Amino acid sequence: MTDHLTVTAGIDNLFDEEPPFVFSAFGANTDVATYDIIGRYMYLRAVVNF
After folding, report:
1. Burial 11-41 (b: 16+ CB within 10 A, else e)
2. Residue closest to 16 by CA, chosen among 37, 47, 30
3. Predicted structure pTM score
4. Fewer CB in 10 Å around end: N or C, the chain?
5. Within its chain, how far is the Cα of 34 from the centroid?
């Protein structure tokens, strides 16, 4: 935005897709290292340099 302010925004898993079911997975029934099990989430980050 300026020389001192940077703003970043985003959305992960925009369409709220479910991860695939994995029979051999433990606990979450999917590979949590590969797929996001939280669902859709948004974030906003501001960094000020001075």
Report:
1. eeeeeeeebeeeeeeeeeebeeeeeeeeeee
2. 37
3. 0.62
4. C
5. 12
Question: What is the model's pLDDT at position 41?
Answer: 93
Residue 42: both structure tokens together: 């948004």
37 vs 28: CA distance, rounded Å? 8
The CA distances from residue 6 to 3, 28, 43, in Å, are 8, 36, 14
Query: What is the average pLDDT value for the chain, to the nearest integer?
Result: 87
Residue with tokens 């991860």: 19
pLDDT for residue 24 is more than 80: no
Angle CA 37–10–17, to nearest 5: 30
Beta bridge partners of 6: 47
3-state secondary structure of 42: strand
